[in-house]
Amino acid sequence: MLQMDVARLKRLSGESARFELLVDLPPLEVQGETASFCGPVSARLVVSNTGAVLLAQGEVAGKLGLTCDRCLELFEYAFVLPFEETYRPVPGGEETGPEGGREETESVPFSGDLLDITPEVLNGLILALPMKALCRDDCPGLCPHCGSNLGVGQCSCESEKIDPRFSVLKDFFDKKKE
Ligand SMILES: [Zn+2]
Ligand SMILES: [Zn+2]
Hints:
Radius of gyration: 25 Å
Low-confidence stretches: none
Bound molecules: zinc ion
Distance between the termini: 69 Å
Helix content: 10-25%
Largest sheet: 5 strands, mixed
Shape: elongated
């Protein structure tokens, strides 16, 4: 988990501390599918004690294994996400649910000496993922006839390919002939 020991920082208003993390994270649930991280996730952050809250700012980077929407192959999606979140220290036990109170105050409550930014990082990552995951921008996808991956090599049914739009026209003309 992306955790930082802020025991000292919590007591020093106006101070800030630099953190560099390198951690393995469990697989991520994205739209009902499970995506595993390829290697550890790194984070470089500066956490500042503003007096009222802890402000964490920095960058999180890593690689996520995604399935290409076109060719269905697994590929590594590299991400570098800017991160900024405000954490409000609350006495132990008083912590509301992860989403509770979030909307009103725009800060995330936390208690104890460990600041865990994992949920916010994962939420940010899910929002940053492309709507269509492609192994490469020009991925040709699968042959609609035999299903072979055209990114790996041309299949043998190239000559028989009929554009679906033309096949509709063909049906139309065939019907007219009858
Ligand atoms: Zn692909
Ligand atoms: Zn084919």
